[in-house]
Write a structure and sequence with these properties.
The structure is a single chain. It is built from 15 helices and no strands. The protein is an all-alpha fold.
């Protein structure tokens, strides 16, 4: 196992490098970069990104600080020296390959640079937004698994019954309707929309949260999380439930289960002593994708709808404003976390079924 872990850790390096190269090329090739946005702002156009780079709030202030020559159409009204200084400000006075290797050098020590538009380092921005995404990702993943696995097992055991049919109908509805639409419905029904006003609509805490007692803080925290977590859970439990059911059905029909029953073992002992371990392998294999999807990819719309300032919203705004340090920094962290979680899931494989030995693969 030690050799396997070492091999996987070493393979992370070229994988991470390859992903960063592809992302760098694609993002750098996209039109409307920070240089063009700065030029547009200096010429009096509204880029939607606010003050760029902390240069100043007016075009005259920024013009005194920056300048150059550019192929951008927006540069036609600015002096050449101004355009050159804009390129130097964002590092575009260097060749692309040099900028890429400078970026990688900083990433080795987790130095992601400073945001072009927020006057904060990328790592500080990520630390500031991470608690929101961690809260949503971890709790929603926990609830999805706590609901989906028992439900999937019961559907497998009671396959073809009325319970299976009606629960399948509910699962199909949950799968067909996206989580963000459930979020809107929940707001309309329970957060001061057209009906009830039971839950807050913004943030994770109430004003004066620091003065609350421990019990009050816990209650207030989950009071704010209830609707976002419910929207997450409804939008993500369907696939895992059906995966669990089909996995258990496949194992229940195998010969060793019939043999165990013939020996007089109870149905509970057969199900949880023999079937559970084998059927759960495929569930464990899907955990990294489920976690990353909920933790990062699936968080954007929910965060916007419930006004939660997390990683998803940070990444979206960075792409919109072409804030390259934030884009690359978040992509690097997302990729690294995904690779590590995948390795962890392989190790859990062995914990669930000791018969698996990765060190023997390929021999």
């Amino acid at each position: 196992m030690g050799i396997y872990i070492l091999r996987r850790l070493l393979l992370m390096i070229p994988t991470l490098l390859g992903i960063m190269v592809v992302n760098f090329v694609i993002i750098q090739a996209a039109p409307g970069g920070p240089v063009e946005q700065m030029i547009f702002q200096l010429e009096g156009h509204d880029t939607g990104g606010g003050t760029l780079g902390g240069i100043g709030s007016s075009s005259s202030d920024a013009t005194t600080a920056i300048g150059g020559q550019s192929q951008y159409r927006g540069s036609q009204g600015l002096p050449t020296e101004v355009i050159e200084k804009i390129h130097a400000l964002y590092g575009f006075d260097k060749p692309a390959h040099e900028r890429f290797f400078d970026m990688l050098g900083g990433y080795l020590v987790f130095d992601f640079g400073e945001s072009f538009f927020r006057n904060h380092t990328v790592i500080d921005l990520i630390k500031d937004k991470m608690p929101v995404s961690i809260s949503l990702g971890l709790w929603s993943t926990l609830f999805v698994y706590l609901i989906s696995i028992p439900l999937g097992i019961q559907k497998a055991v009671r396959h073809g019954t009325a319970f299976d049919v009606w629960s399948s109908a509910a699962i199909i509805i949950g799968y067909a309707i996206p989580g963000f639409l459930f979020a809107i419905i929940l707001i309309v029904l329970f957060a001061g929309g057209s009906f009830l006003d039971w839950f807050p609509l913004r943030g994770l805490t109430s004003p004066g949260f620091e003065e609350f007692s421990t019990v009050q803080k816990i209650g207030d925290y989950f009071w704010h999380l209830f609707l976002p977590l419910l929207a997450y859970t409804i939008g993500n439990f369907a696939t895992l439930t059906m995966l669990t059911k089909n996995s258990f059905l496949d194992e229940i029909n195998r010969q060793y289960v019939q043999t165990a029953r013939a020996k007089g073992l109870s149905e509970s002992r057969v199900l949880y002593g023999h079937v559970f371990r084998n059927a759960m392998l495929i569930i464990i294999a899907g955990f990294p994708a489920a976690f990353i999807s909920i933790f990062f990819t699936g968080s954007l719309l929910i965060e916007v709808i419930f006004s939660l300032d997390g990683i998803g919203l940070l990444g979206f705004e960075a792409v919109k404003t072409r804030d390259y340090p934030v884009i690359f920094g978040t992509l690097y962290i997302f990729t690294l976390v995904g690779l590590v979680v995948k390795l962890i899931s392989d190790l859990v494989y062995v914990m669930v079924d000791p018969r698996i030995h990765f060190d023997t693969q390929g021999k």
